[in-house]
Known about the structure:
mainly beta, five-stranded antiparallel β-sheet, three-stranded antiparallel β-sheet, elongated, disordered C terminus
Amino acid sequence: MGLSQLSGNADLRFLDSTGVALQASTNEGAASEWIETLELAVGTYYLQVTTADVEPVSYTLNGMLGGVLDMGIRIRENMVTRTS
Length: 84
């Protein structure tokens, strides 16, 4: 999963249900961010997008939904749930 077409500097983190970062992408500037697919246990996970910029940063969230959905994972807004 990743961020592209960023209008400024943003970072992407993949968190477990307790808020612990499992992976992060923290490239400088408006460079795209990408997190590799993880082997996930059943549970709830979150995608966190943060920025240090004063102005809001726009971006496009990208992912390989076909492969993710085949593994029983559903993405709704910033929540990712592994169901099987």
